[in-house]
Amino acid sequence: MNMEKKINILVADDHPIFRKGLVELISDVPQLFVCGEAEDGNSAIELIQLTKPSIAILDINMPGMNGFDVAKEVRSLKLPVFIIFLTMYNEEELFNKAMDLGVRGYILKECAAKDILDCILSVAKGKHYISPVISDYLVNRSMVLKINEERKSAIEKLTPMEKQILSLIAEDKTSKEIADKFFISIRTVDNHRMNICNKLSIHGSNALLKFALENKHHF
User: Fold this and answer.
1) What is the rounded distance in angstroms from the CA atom of residue 70 to the CA atom of residue 107?
2) Residue 108: inside a domain
3) Which domain holds residue 190?
4) Considering the entire predicted model, what is its pTM?
5) Which among 64, 95, 139, 175 counts the fewest CB atoms within 10 Å?
6) What pLDDT is recorded for position 207?
7) Contact by Cβ (8 Å): 86, 107
8) Which of 101, 121, 144, 109 has its CA nearest to residue 13?
9) Rounded to an integer, what distance in angstroms lies between the CA atom of residue 142 and that of residue 163?
């Protein structure tokens, strides 16, 4: 993105006073230009399509379409706009949901004006930016993604039968129920269970069931 040109920004927030303050903050920076304001998610989508901003700053909780709905629609329509969530919600689950939708910035409303402007300028360069106070969320997310990749890789080592059995374990089926389904002995099912545990390095009571429940989307 050419930083010498004006960076067009759309601001969407249903609180008029906060929105006005944000617009004034952005307008004080020469290279930034507010090309539109929206008070709800539906208007935000319409204005994004109409004004074609480089960045859309969205509140999560808005009337009609909320911030997540807008992000999903932007992704579905493949609109060329970077999204920043500026929100009061300091919750890791919401942060991860935002990252999964491709949101580039996640800033808490309690942050200083400098953090908000730093976020806008970083995102304009194609980078990601999150509030320093929730940096632990990013670390946790990276660790979870790494663990999920390792688990997915391990699951790929299982045979088709072992994957079917793991899927049934996720449905809380007993060894007898699994044996009856495949017309095999309970001992054979237990052997499969042991092989699965060895391949996945799973140990302990109910550990296999827990693993199956947490990773059932991988098989």
Assistant:
1) 17
2) yes
3) 156-218
4) 0.65
5) 139
6) 84
7) yes
8) 109
9) 26
77 shares a domain with 174: no
Buried b (16+ CB within 10 A) or exposed e, 173-204: bebeebbeeeeeeeeebeebbeebeeebebee
Which segments of the chain have a pLDDT < 50? 1-3
Same structural domain, 177 and 207: yes
> Tokens 């994957």 appear where?
163
Residue 49's pLDDT is 97
- N- to C-terminal Cα separation, the chain: 40
Domain count, the chain: 2
Q: How far is CA 80 from the centre of its chain?
A: 19
111 and 203 assigned to the same domain: no
Q: What is residue 143's predicted lDDT score, i.e. its pLDDT?
A: 67
Report the CATH number that the domain containing residue 127 is assigned in CATH: 3.40.50.2300
In this predicted model, what pLDDT tens digit does every residue of 165-200 receive, in sequence order? 999 999 999 999 999 999 999 999 999 999 999 888
**Is 149 part of any domain?**
no
CATH number of the domain enclosing 173: 1.10.10.10
Residue listed under structure tokens 């098989």:
219
For 139-159, write each residue's pLDDT tens digit.
566 666 666 677 777 788 899
